[in-house]
Each structure stands twice: as C-alpha cells, then as structure tokens.
Write a structure and sequence with these properties.
The chain is an all-alpha fold. It has 9 helices and no strands.
C-alpha cells in the first residue's frame, strides 16, 4: 500500500472514531473502554517490537526509545499502578493526545510527510495505529471526565512526564545509554534529528518542547469539549484553572 494512502485511511478512521467518542462517550462503560484501548495498544506494540526484532536482527529495549513507546508500555501496566500514580499517568496521556495525533503524520522514523516512502511497511502501519489508538484514548479520558481541563490535572501531567525525563537523563549519564535520544556521550538529538551542537541546548529545547506539546494538548482538548454537546461543555465555558478537583474520578 502506498504510504500516503495508508496515512489518509488512518486519518479518516481517526476522525470517525473521534466523532463517535464526542457523540456517544456517555453511553460507554469506562472500564470496558479502557480495557479495549489497552488490548489494542498491547497487541499493536507487541507486533511493533516483533517487527523491529526481525528488521534489526537483535532485540532492543524499546520502552525508552522515545516518549511514545514509554506511554504505550505503561498503558497495560497502569492496571498494576497505585490509584494516585495511575491518575498522574492518565493526565499525561490526555494532554499528549494532540502530540500523538501529530506523530501519526510525522513519524519519528522520518517517514510519512517528512520523507516520503513509496510503500507503507508493516512497521509503519503499526506505528501509525499505535499513535492513533493512544491519541483517541487520551481524548476519551477528557470526554469521560476522568481527566479535567484544570491546572491541577495539567500539573500532574507535567510532574509525571518530567519525572520520567529526569530519570532517563540520569540513566543515560550513568550507563552511557541513549534513551529518549538524550544520550550525553555523543548521541543526542530531538527525535533523531540533531538540531543543536551542544547537549545542554538540546536537552533544554526538548524539555521546552514537551511543555509546549502538553499546552497544545490542553487547548486541543478544550476545543473538542466545547464542540461536544455533553455536560462538560459548561465546565469548559467557565474554566477556573485553579479550581480544586476531586481525584477520585478515575478509571
């Protein structure tokens, strides 16, 4: 299948699913929806890892390859998380929804719209579907009320993602790794693209970029909720960014 045809089909499926979530999310059972997204995510990610193994001829630990694989790995593991930690993860997933959608179009492997390839390999299809599924999951978390468009939940997303980034950077320093593309010892870049000459400038740009992605995700979800006709519409209309939120409303 031609690469662009695959992307167009996936984008079409994405918007059909998005409309279904916006119109019918109140009819869905939260537990079953979460299980559905988790099963799809897990099957696709396992398939992706198997394809990477056969492509490279050796096994690589992909969880810390970039932020996306890390989030994919954590979704099935969220069932094992403490309730409070799980909600931090859900907040991050919700505000990364726009970033995941963009990653459908501009792959970290520099395919799709960045460097056109004639044929869509199984690896690229799986990569696209993984981002599609996770983006929709993040949007559902907002529409279902599990994550709210409040500063407290946005702050949770920042705490979670920056804690992970800090951990990864320390691991890179100590063990000479290149997780998240932030290897200090000569292997650093933002999604495999070396923009800056120094490591610290690259790291600073990476941290700022993650913050901007979260902010854009907040705006994106706010627009979607305003377009939606359910009871969250009034909440977004009168956003009180520093209002207390009950964290017991989790999946």
């Amino acid at each position: 299948m031609p690469m662009m045809a695959m992307v167009i089909i996936c984008v079409f499926v994405y918007f059909i699913c998005l409309i279904a979530i916006l119109l019918y999310n109140e009819r869905f059972n939260k537990m079953y929806v979460r299980l559905f997204f988790t099963i799809v995510n897990t099957c696709l990610f396992i398939g992706y890892c198997i394809n990477e193994y056969y492509r490279k001829g050796s096994f690589e630990f992909l969880t810390f390859d970039q932020i996306s694989p890390f989030m994919f790995t954590m979704l099935p593991l969220s069932y094992l998380m403490d309730k409070r930690v799980r909600h931090y993860y859900f907040c991050t997933a919700a505000f990364l929804s726009l970033g995941m959608f963009v990653a459908m179009l501009v792959s970290p492997q520099e395919a799709y719209l960045v460097a056109y390839k004639a044929d869509a390999t199984v690896l690229y299809v799986l990569d696209t579907l993984l981002h599609l599924n996770f983006s929709l999951f993040g949007i559902y978390l907002i529409c279902s009320g599990t994550v709210k468009l409040k500063f407290k939940h946005f702050k949770k997303a920042m705490i979670f993602i920056y804690t992970v980034i800090t951990f990864v950077v320390l691991v890179n320093f100590i063990f000479h790794k290149n997780y998240f593309g932030m290897g200090y010892y000569g292997k650093y870049g933002i999604y495999m693209i070396r923009i800056f000459e120094t490591y610290w400038a690259t790291l600073a740009a990476y941290i700022l970029g993650v913050f901007l992605v979260l902010v854009l995700g907040l705006i994106f979800n706010g627009v979607l909720v305003k377009l939606n006709g359910h009871n969250l519409k009034e909440e977004v209309k009168n956003v009180k960014f520093f209002e207390y939120v009950d964290d017991n409303e989790t999946l």
